[in-house]
Amino acid sequence: MSDDGGLALLLLGPAGGAGLYWMLYRYYRNTDKSHAFERETVVDAKPVTGAERDRKVDEIKGTRESRIQGDNLRDYRKRVQRIRGDSS
Amino acid sequence: MSNTTPPPVPPTGPGSPRDVPPVPGSYPIDPATLPDPIRDELLAPDPVAIDTAAEELKDGANRCPKCGATDIRQRPGTDLLICLYCRNEWHGQRVEEEFGFGEGLDELTGTVIASGARDIDTDVSSLMTYKCTGCGAEVTVNTESTMTARCHWCRHVFGVNEQVANGAVPDAVLPFHIKKDDAVARIRQFVDKRRLFALKEFKEQFTPENVVGVYLPYMIVDGKASADVAGRGEIKTREYTQGSGDKKKTYYDADIYEVERHVDFTVDDLPLESSTERGNLDTGVNTNNIINTILPFDTKNAVKWNASYLSGYTSEKRDTDVEQLRPRLEDQLLSIARCQVEESVNRFDRGVRWEQERLDVHGTRWVAMYLPVWLYSYQQGGKGGMLHYIAVNGRTGETMGSVPVQQWKLLLAAITVGTFLEGIALWMLGSST
């Protein structure tokens, strides 16, 4: 067995213990819960536009990351730079 | 709003406006000196709030439409009001139809504020005194926690129906549907699933019968907005592995795209906490997120304000104005927009990193509403400790709660499982060498 695999296996105990702690803590205290307004509100949206303007700007070769860096597609509530318009 | 009240604290955080907006109705130039057409426009009356104050309830006495008695209560489990004297039952008017709150979302412009959601005047006391129409005695109602009182002399029942500027009287109320027994059963069921690691004192003192029915203040917001988001997306073009055996590593090639999306949308009945305390959802210091989780309510069925719905229940008072809630609304609208555009970027299989967002709010409509919540609370560690809530939605029965944990038990369980896993790991390592 390689060093990497051995180290990962040694971490199994602490990781499992910590994971269980957090899972149970959340199950009892529900600190991660809140109103899921994104899903639970009646939203009537017109078709999303802008797909026709998608523009290839660059390419990457040989990265080991399986996702884009800083992926926030599903972190709806994580605010990014806000552009202020005249009418808002 | 009177000029003596301090302006609301401007929102802080990234992207918040730096300048405090001018007081409504004030102009840098005297309108009288301007040409007629401009002056007329400036001096034209502002859009009035939708008036939801009921004329017939102004004197504080809710009278049965049939016999005129004031001993009126909500019939448990229904939206009906019942006269305890002649048993006449009647239904409150739904605000949805009465004031057209559900319509015209697409044509919303500006800020429309129903009369119960108007700015709070801090000079107005929460204690209200009524002259009893039956005997002339004075009856005081403390609107911080109750909205009805009985005249000690002639037993007339009073309700605060007049829309006073202290924020206590909303436009509408959603009556309790879930009865107390039902709420108690739900809380018991919820806690029964969380007993193993629960705090010993909590289990010993657990008496769900002590649950109280509370009407909590919310702003129900309709809005029309458009949002733009921009960022980068990546599409995988190749996936390959190099090396062999344990040194095997996976590599990816990808195309990077500039992505922009635009969406126009309307939201219907978004609830926002209109009490500063309840709106603070910091899970490090309180468990208000529990009450937030049982949202939403079937706000379409809310009825026009009538204090009789509140007899037997307590209530909390609204203490935030529309402008103070606007940053929260915009934040939630942006989140909704981001959720809406997600499907349109499916082809970026390596994900999207949004870098900029913009929101244009075209119109909003604000209605103040009391929503029914069954609340069970437990104070951990005496005064100053965490207050744990278990809340039941008074309409849908959705239940959520925070059960305090016995830390040593939880840690012991985690360490035991960790040790067991470590034992397996060591055994596997030992057997492989």
Task: Kindly list the characteristics that best describe this protein.
heterodimer, A: 88 residues, alpha+beta, 34% helix, flat, B: alpha+beta, 9-stranded mixed sheet, 3-stranded antiparallel sheet, disordered N terminus
Structure, explained:
- Chain A is an alpha+beta fold and about 90 residues long.
- Helix content of chain A is about 35%, strand content about 15%.
- With about 425 residues, chain B is α+β, with helices and mostly antiparallel strands.
- Chain B has one domain.
- Helices cover about 20% and strands about 30% of the residues of chain B.
- Chain B contains 8 helices and 16 strands.
- In chain B, the strands form 4 sheets. In chain B, strands 4, 9, 10, 11, 12, 13, 14, 15 and 16 form a 9-stranded mixed β-sheet that branches. In chain B, strands 1-2-3 form a 3-stranded antiparallel β-sheet, with no helix packed on it. In chain B, strands 5-6 form a two-stranded antiparallel ribbon.
- Chain B starts with about 35 loop residues before the first helix and ends with a helix.
- The N terminus of chain B is likely disordered.
- At the A-B interface, helix 1, helix 2, helix 3, strand 1 and strand 2 of A face strand 10, strand 11, helix 6, helix 7 and strand 14 of B.
- Strand 1 of chain A pairs antiparallel with strand 11 of chain B, so a sheet runs across the interface.
